[in-house]
Amino acid sequence: MTALPEPPAPNPLSDDGDDAPAPAPGAQYRRVLLKISGEAMGIKGQMGVDGDELQLIAREITEAARLGVQLAVVVGGGNIIRGAEMARESHINQVTADYMGMLGTVINGLALKEVLEAMGQPARVLSAVNLSAVAETFIRGRALRHMEKGRVVIFVAGTGNPFFTTDSAAALRAAEIGADILLKATKVDGIYDKDPMRHSDATRFQTISFDEAIRLNLKVMDLTAFDMCRQRGIPIIVFNMKAPGHIAEVISGQPHGTRVTLE
After folding, report:
1. 132: how many CB neighbours lie within 10 A of its CB?
2. Helices 223-232, 166-177: inter-axial angle, 10-degree rounding
């Protein structure tokens, strides 16, 4: 992939600065919500954050942000801890386990912010739970202002409530900030009628309606997230983000992955 140009060095502690550049002519969207799983930041079968994977993700996000779109990211925490598994396998109440999972997303969000800013891309971490020592508390107007200033906003701690996944958090934040599209980054190149890792005859959908995705009980996102996006008319694109340039290409309108729409 072509090396990114060096931007002017920002002051990451300042709330001053120029507004975001106008979207590049090829950008199809003004405001984008990107959902990244925690597993994408780690090594399969291991816990923790992998530096190489983090660099790859940050570089792809930086390239996409330089198209001039307003970009927000929701990160998962499965590479740190899975609340549901913790509750099931240990003597820990589901509520407590889910809050532990939220803290895992905070770890990932802070790591991503640091690497983005090291690459010259200003970023802010906004948390659904109060963690003022390390992150700003989520306020809708604050998030919008950061994006207007060209900063990548990283939403952490899910919805701030137990029993909700980070997919649901992504749909909620997309609705709150008025996102034009929700991009679900995965390890496969779209939505299939069955698990392509287990079934060689799995068929990929190029497009699918929300109603059909819900009827088929497709597991790529939870039903709460699908239904929230359906109600708000926010389309979803599910794609493989590990292919170089795919985030920027999807934002530019290139037909990667599967598009989920009202019809």
Report:
1. 8
2. 10
Q: Which helix (H) or strand (E) segment is 261 a member of?
A: strand 258-261
Contact (CB, 8 A) for 28 and 255: no
pLDDT on residue 40: 86
- Residue 1 scores a pLDDT above 80: no
pLDDT of 219 reads 79
Q: How many residues does the chain have?
A: 263
What's the rounded Cα separation, in Å, for the pair 112 and 56? 10
d(CA 121, CA 133): 22
The domain that holds 89 is classified in CATH as 3.40.1160.10
How far apart, in whole angstroms, are the C-alpha atoms of residue 210 and residue 220?
12
Q: Residue 81 sits in which domain range?
A: 31-185
Single-letter amino acid code for the residue at 144: L
Give me the pLDDT at residue 117, please. 97
Residue 148, domain member (yes or no): yes
Within-domain flag for 201: no
Whole-angstrom distance, CA of residue 249 vs CA of residue 237: 12
Using alpha carbons, list the distances in angstroms from residue 59 to 65, 129, 241, 242: 10, 28, 11, 11
Give the tens place of pLDDT for each residue, 199-256: 888 899 999 999 999 898 887 888 899 999 999 999 999 999 878 888 999 999 888 9
Q: Nearest-CA neighbor of 41 among 31, 30, 50?
A: 50
Verdict on whether the full-model pTM lies above 0.85: yes
Within-domain flag for 231: no
Domain count along the chain: 1
* Phi, psi (degrees; rounded to nearest 5) at 31: -135, 130
* pLDDT at 138 > cutoff 70: yes
Residue that is written with structure tokens 């019809």 in the block: 263
Cα 91 from chain centroid (whole Å): 31
